[in-house]
Structures are given as structure tokens and as C-alpha cells.
Amino acid sequence: MTHILVVADVPRSTHWYSDVLGAELFREYGTSAVFSFNGSWLLLVEEGAPTPDKPGVSFVPPDPKAASHSFTVRVPDCQAAYETLVGRGAEFFTPPYDWGAEIRCFFPDPDGHVWEISESG
Q1: How large is the average pLDDT for residues 24-49?
Q2: Does 3.30.390.80 match the CATH number of domain 67-121?
Q3: Could you give the CA distance from residue 47 to residue 65 in angstroms, rounded to a whole number?
């Protein structure tokens, strides 16, 4: 499965996805970048108007204050993953929160796509 992420600035997001998140850049073409991450593909694209194969639908970056989806990455140690990502420049909403059955925390990419790291309790 490939997840298409609409971003405002592909070079800025390419840096974030490779250097902060740790995704592997597979290739770049035109104004797009393809990453391999945790068994999935991430395709970063610039916003765009409707096309003949998606009439009436524009691709736009997300509203950073309203998430319609998020990506969850299961980790063995949420605190350690949090510290690693903070060290790389990730900006979390809060430190890891212990819910009892799960420890988790959330952070946005430069455009507001929401990522979560989660440890089973």
C-alpha cells in the first residue's frame, strides 16, 4: 500500500521524512518523493487541482489543527523512540502518555500530517 501525502514543500518534507522520521528515500521524480518506511510506501506530492481521473477533487495539504487520519508506528519502547525522534528534530504535542494498556504520543510532520508512536502496556 502507498500512502499519498500532500505537502506544501517537497524538499522540506523530504528532509523531514528522511532525517527526522528515518524513512528511506527510494526515488524522487518531478515534484514528488517516494519513501519506504516500516513496510509501507509514502509518496510526497505537491498540491494539485482536479484531474480527469479525479474530477472535482483537489489535493491539498492538511489543516494542521484538524486531523482526519494519523499514522501509528508500534515501538517496543515509546520513551526511547520519543527521545530518538526529539533528538532528530521531531516536535511532539506532549511527551509519552501512559494510558495503562498503551503508552503513546503524537507528533506532526511539517505540514501537519499526524504521526503516533505507541507501545503496548
Answers
A1: 96
A2: no
A3: 18
Q: Where are the domains of the chain?
A: 1-47, 67-121
59-84 as b/e, with b when 16 or more CB fall inside 10 Å? bebbeeeeeeeebeeebeebeebbee
User: Distances in Å between the alpha carbon of 25 and those of 14, 22, 41, 77, 78?
Assistant: 8, 9, 10, 25, 24
Taking the C-alpha atoms of residue 89 and residue 45, their distance in angstroms, rounded to an integer, is 22
- Cα 105 to the center of its chain, rounded Å: 14
pTM: 0.92
